[in-house]
């Protein structure tokens, strides 16, 4: 883009919390953001300059939404890449490239890309339907090739008699890694000469829903592991020649090796802490790269940060959310709650997050664990 001003029109496919937090950054640039989402109650609905309710996987609908935009980005992978390509042909700047979204939408293509480029990842086989699942031995991890997110579409098979596997769908079977820690590195890339990588974060999962519960930055690993993690994540971005924000999820195994798990071509849950913890947040970076503006510094502004996901309680009935523990959180120095404006809660649904920042890592983690125990969301039973 040669120029940017208040009349510049930015489109976002997806109206969830990631788009919402990008819009909040866009206010500071007086940028006009327009959103398309299938839900009339999307979190972005009342914050955007224009909201279009429509099917993100419908190429014609995506093209119609984007006609007249200056640039377009995504906050979810499940979108029509054909529609994105049509907008590119119309002269719209599209970030990330549709070809990259298409590859990342399919976990099988992701794994094959890693293998072709010699990027370390868990051994795997691709399976079209209900074939032999024992080629890699047990235990194995089965992932649906398309559509999985937030713990959905992933199952661990302990042995050949395990009946929890997904039936009749193309999938990836991976050898189960002996994981010491799960890490994430978010890389922002506008061009070969404008690349920024945040410090690796450590991800702790809720085993009941297989969804991220707690993020800590910096990760509690050696400087060598941090350096290798950032180098590996940056290599993935360079091999793709990616433009945009790429979240690279990593496994640190018990032998000290770092493996790529999978990637996401958008802002990511493991980077929410950057709003308060870094000079430039991941959402500001996404806005900048979409507008083809120089990326900002990723330097931390505090020595440590943690982020707690506010998840629907395991037994939460579906309905209007009721939050608990926020008063105490708001009364604690260095604690910043963010609620996403979702109209209903379900078990393990991401309803918000709370960031904790400070200069003592142990104290930050302790406060985050207190937040994890005290802040919750459920539906009040009538």
Automatic annotation (TrEMBL):
<dbReference type="Pfam" id="PF22660">
    <property type="entry name" value="RS_preATP-grasp-like"/>
</dbReference>
<dbReference type="Pfam" id="PF17769">
    <property type="entry name" value="PurK_C"/>
</dbReference>
<keyword id="KW-0067">ATP-binding</keyword>
<dbReference type="InterPro" id="IPR013815">
    <property type="entry name" value="ATP_grasp_subdomain_1"/>
</dbReference>
<dbReference type="InterPro" id="IPR005875">
    <property type="entry name" value="PurK"/>
</dbReference>
<feature type="domain" description="ATP-grasp">
    <location>
        <begin position="111"/>
        <end position="291"/>
    </location>
</feature>
<dbReference type="InterPro" id="IPR054350">
    <property type="entry name" value="PurT/PurK_preATP-grasp"/>
</dbReference>
<dbReference type="InterPro" id="IPR040686">
    <property type="entry name" value="PurK_C"/>
</dbReference>
<dbReference type="InterPro" id="IPR011054">
    <property type="entry name" value="Rudment_hybrid_motif"/>
</dbReference>
<comment type="pathway">
    <text>Purine metabolism.</text>
</comment>
<dbReference type="GO" id="GO:0004638">
    <property type="term" value="F:phosphoribosylaminoimidazole carboxylase activity"/>
</dbReference>
<keyword id="KW-0658">Purine biosynthesis</keyword>
<dbReference type="GO" id="GO:0046872">
    <property type="term" value="F:metal ion binding"/>
</dbReference>
<protein>
    <recommendedName>
        <fullName>ATP-grasp domain-containing protein</fullName>
    </recommendedName>
</protein>
<dbReference type="GO" id="GO:0006189">
    <property type="term" value="P:'de novo' IMP biosynthetic process"/>
</dbReference>
<dbReference type="InterPro" id="IPR016185">
    <property type="entry name" value="PreATP-grasp_dom_sf"/>
</dbReference>
<dbReference type="GO" id="GO:0005829">
    <property type="term" value="C:cytosol"/>
</dbReference>
<dbReference type="GO" id="GO:0005524">
    <property type="term" value="F:ATP binding"/>
</dbReference>
<dbReference type="InterPro" id="IPR011761">
    <property type="entry name" value="ATP-grasp"/>
</dbReference>
<dbReference type="InterPro" id="IPR003135">
    <property type="entry name" value="ATP-grasp_carboxylate-amine"/>
</dbReference>
<keyword id="KW-0547">Nucleotide-binding</keyword>
<dbReference type="Pfam" id="PF02222">
    <property type="entry name" value="ATP-grasp"/>
</dbReference>
